[in-house]
Amino acid sequence: MAPATEQRRHVLERIARGISERAAGTTSFHVAIDGPDAAGKTTFARDLDDVLYPMLPHGVELRRFSADDLIIPLELRRSEQAADPRWVYENVYPLDRIREITIGDPVHEKPGTVVLVDGMSLLRPELEDLWHLRIYLSVPESVTVQRVLDRLNQEDDEPEAVRARYQERYLPALRLYREIADPVSRSEVVIDMRDPDSPVVVRWGGL
């Protein structure tokens, strides 16, 4: 993997410093990295992990997981139920499991532990109380679709079938999420990720 560009590194380092400062003295510090599909959330979380860990005091733990590891199976995403965008929004993740993993075991969690969680629609009302810092990675719908198509392999569906599912199911579900939760307004940090090598921070949120 190519090293991060100067601009991307600057963004990661500034966010990492802010997290390390805010997490100090807390029981645990939960960071949501939200955004639409193919915004680069998991890669951003991994890179942030790499930059943040050396900044934390010795012995402080850093945990990271992707909510996409818990997403409903492919057969459900292609089912008749999933033709309803609201059903997709309400059922895409097991929210109780996201909460459980994020909180971990408070009895054994070391003070100042930082937890990075990436995924779609993490800022929904049901998880509102879980997060201490909200980061939203923004890309237009056209970029989402093109990136999904670009990463298809020979074992995937035909591009037009994938495009149709996004247009008819997944993008409407994400629009519903934005309507219900307004994640851009409620995120402390908002980053335009149309060019992942040159992210543009729209709002720093005091970091």
Give your account of this protein's structure.
With 207 residues, this protein is of the alpha/beta class. The protein has a single domain (6-203), classed as P-loop containing nucleotide triphosphate hydrolases (Rossmann fold, 3-Layer(aba) Sandwich), CATH 3.40.50. The chain has 8 helices and 6 strands; from the N terminus they run αβαβαααββαααββ. The chain has helices spanning 6-23, 41-52, 74-77, 85-91, 95-103, 141-150, 159-181, 183-186; strands spanning 28-34, 62-66, 113-118, 133-138, 189-192, 200-203. It has a 6-stranded mixed sheet with strand order 2-3-1-4-5-6, with helices on both faces. Strand 5 and strand 6 (200-203) form a beta hairpin. Helix 1 (6-23) crosses helix 2 (41-52), helix 4 (85-91) crosses helix 7 (159-181) and helix 6 (141-150) runs antiparallel to helix 7 (159-181). The longest helix has 23 residues, at 159-181. It is globular and about 50 Å long. The model has no long low-confidence stretch (mean pLDDT 94). This is Uridine kinase. GO terms for molecular function: kinase activity.
List its salient traits.
207 residues, alpha/beta, Rossmann fold, 6-stranded mixed β-sheet, 15% strand, globular
* CATH structural architecture: 3-Layer(aba) Sandwich
- Tell me the overall shape: globular
Number of domains: 1
| Binned strand content | 15-25%
Oligomerization category of the chains in this entry: single chain
**Can you say what the CATH homologous superfamily is?**
P-loop containing nucleotide triphosphate hydrolases
Uncertain segments: none
Q: How far do the termini sit from each other?
A: 28 Å
Number of DSSP E strands:
6
The averaged pLDDT comes out at: 94
Spatial strand sequence of the major β-sheet: 2-3-1-4-5-6
The biggest sheet, with number of strands, parallel, antiparallel or mixed sense and barrel status, is:
6 strands, mixed
SS class = alpha/beta
Q: What is the CATH level 1 assignment?
A: Alpha Beta
Helix share bin: 40-55%
- Continuous helix count: 8
Order of helices and strands, N to C?
HEHEHHHEEHHHEE
Overall radius of gyration? 17 Å
As for the CATH topology, it is Rossmann fold
